[in-house]
Fold this sequence. Notes:
Blueprint: H1 8-25, E1 34-35, E2 38-39, H2 41-53, H3 72-82, H4 88-91, H5 98-108, H6 111-122, E3 128-131, E4 149-153, E5 156-167, E6 174-182, E7 188-197, E8 203-208, E9 220-231, E10 235-236, H7 242-276, E11 280-281, E12 284-285, H8 290-318, H9 324-348, H10 351-354, H11 360-367, H12 377-389, H13 393-396
Helix pairs in contact: 1-3, 3-7, 3-8, 5-6, 5-7, 7-8, 7-9, 8-9, 9-11, 9-12
The structure holds flavin-adenine dinucleotide.
Amino acid sequence: MIDFSLPQELVDLKQRVDHFIREKIVPLERDPRQGPHGPGEDLRRELIALGRAAGLLSPHAPVKWGGLGLDHRAMAVVFEAAGWSPLGPLALNIMAPDEGNTNLLDKVATDEQKERWLRPLVAGEIRTAFSMTEPDDGAGSDPNLMKTTARRHGDEFVIAGRKWLISGASGASLNIVMARTLGEDGSDRGATMFLVDMDAPGFRIVRQLETLDSNMPGGHAEVEFDDVRVGAERILGQIGRGFRNAQVRLGPARLTHCMRWLGAARRCHAIAADYARRRHAFGKLIGEHQGVGFQLADNASDLHLCRLAIRHSAWLLDRGEKARNETSLCKVFCSEALGRVVDRSLQILGGLGITGDTVVERIYRDIRAFRIYDGPSEVHRFALARAIMSGDPALSDPIA
Ligand SMILES: Cc1cc2nc3c(=O)[nH]c(=O)nc-3n(C[C@H](O)[C@H](O)[C@H](O)COP(=O)(O)OP(=O)(O)OC[C@H]3O[C@@H](n4cnc5c(N)ncnc54)[C@H](O)[C@@H]3O)c2cc1C
């Protein structure tokens, strides 16, 4: 039986995070050190310092590397509380892509690699990027289209290719790069991940992309690898296991996106509900008009169901199950349902919703990409449909 009750220490932790976000982080939301490519490094460091002082930094990371060592169920509660503010995940050092990279390094890196990159990452001292997607008909929804190569030359690998939509690349210290590995004879050895320094000769940021969202430090960039040479000690995991190890990162990362966005959508709903209880039109409060009241009711059910779906998937992961289909289902459902909550909240606010006077406008812009990154909804549905057609028992009759 699934137990959704929270132990007292988690209730206490949630209250501490709620209080921290409302008292220390929400007041910084209008800080001018933010632009179209996200919060600046100054502001990020200030947020990290606040998170550290509150004893809340890196709740997802193992204690050994300086984190709080929470399991997925506890993360669901803490990440949701942090998501209340667009700056909350930064203050707790649980923002993508660093949060997923922390998990990946913890699970796959050697002890030496962990000491060099995981420890400062968990301390919030460095930022990292994850480079998989490519322009020009390369890897995207279908990673098998990958064009970037890492060709073996003696003890080294020479990486050549382009990546784009790389979050946080500008200002990061480490780039985790996925490339198709070629032997010295040109034979295909499968995809491999490499740890590449951002100042490695041959690497450059081609351009900073102008995007709808603006919540990510460093924004999103197109980057180029022009024969970047790395030694074998820069292999993350094993040669040819890149796609498999990417799942180590992507499964939990899909779920943690849901957790953070649940907090953000709850904030939008709270702002809309408050407005609906104060604003009048046609002789009554707008919330008393069925058209608005029903939207609030739909928000409440979407939020409730998302929380249940997240906690169920978190529970499965804590039991050691891969839960690949469940995290896929959860990602599709939450990205769409939470997007609807934010959209309805903005509608209820009328013209105010379009302005920067509430945080809803910002969350509305930021949440849209959630239906695309870490697998567009259609690609998850495509994978789920294939599993159903192949007779997957859990998906063919999920209630059983
Ligand atoms: C804000 C943001 C941040 C990102 N950060 C990173 C990052 O840090 N690192 C990184 O490597 N990548 C990143 N990405 C890239 C992201 O992972 C890709 O956008 C995503 O995998 C989809 O690939 P694509 O954009 O090439 O879409 P395409 O592959 O061009 O697909 C376009 C559309 O085709 C449809 N489609 C595709 N396949 C199917 C199918 N089987 N059935 C039905 N419809 C289908 C979908 O609607 C899809 O949206 C980021 C993207 C965004 C938007």
